[in-house]
């Protein structure tokens, strides 16, 4: 578990978890569903996809790995890719706003002919139990994704999440986090992609799983050292335990200063006893702090 200096303190006070879907709740290795697309169209779309690290773009490229990079391809965050007049990305970006169900990319060639590519992704094996563990810790859990309603609803049901939102672009994700904070919540945002970076930065505390993009890991407060979400509930338990022990140690220190220091000033204890008490108080505090990582 890699974390910033104040991450555990903020993690202990998180009261809701907002999870991304692709690569966080699911394995993040979507597979193209063959639907009879012409080989030349698949190759042209994969050539544009080579310029992106988005999971769907990488899945499209895996279906046509020898496709060369399309010239002058530009990525527009949360929307898609553009090369000249050709576009590859979300249905709305490619002028097909009515096609939004499931995990899809739309390729619109320079002549305007649209082709839909559909994908499937598997839920992480540990996701349902991790979601249940977060709920047992008292956190409400939401699913926030840029994918279509069908895919997001299916993932939410499989993971045991009642509150979900689909078709959320990077700006909408960050706005949702800000709205939660405005209502007095302390959101924990968990995401792995470039599209999650703004929401990760806006959250009260944020986490990225191993395998996340460099931008997500750099932006997140906490980087889990294994794939999946299994470590997240344990990290919250450790953070809360550390907070309790920190308060106990402050109490020990106050008690020492209230009792031992006046006694030493009054001459009720000799210097040797005072030194022993000082050393023993430090050992007590250190020993108590070590309990944070146990059990």
List the helices and strands and how they pair.
Blueprint: E1 2-3, H1 7-12, E2 16-19, E3 31-33, H2 39-49, H3 55-63, E4 73-76, E5 80-83, E6 86-89, E7 103-108, E8 114-120, H4 127-136, E9 140-144, H5 149-159, E10 163-165, H6 170-182, E11 187-190, H7 197-202, E12 205-208, H8 214-219, E13 222-223, H9 231-265, H10 271-290
Parallel strand pairs: 2-9, 2-11, 9-10, 11-12, 12-13
Antiparallel strand pairs: 1-13, 3-8, 4-5, 5-6, 6-7, 7-8
Helix pairs in contact: 2-3, 9-10
- Number of helices in the DSSP assignment: 10
Radius of gyration: 25 Å
Helix content: 40-55%
Assembly type: single chain
Task: Report on this structure.
Strand 7 and strand 8 form a beta hairpin. The protein has helices at residues 7-12, 39-49, 55-63, 127-136, 149-159, 170-182, 197-202, 214-219, 231-265, 271-290, and strands spanning 2-3, 16-19, 31-33, 73-76, 80-83, 86-89, 103-108, 114-120, 140-144, 163-165, 187-190, 205-208, 222-223. It has ten helices and 13 strands. It is of the alpha/beta class and 295 residues long. The mean pLDDT is 86. Helix 9 (231-265) packs antiparallel against helix 10 (271-290). The chain is elongated and about 95 Å long. 43% of the residues lie in helices and 18% in strands. The strands form two sheets. The chain has a seven-stranded mixed beta sheet, sandwiched between helices. It has a six-stranded antiparallel beta sheet with strand order 3-8-7-6-5-4.
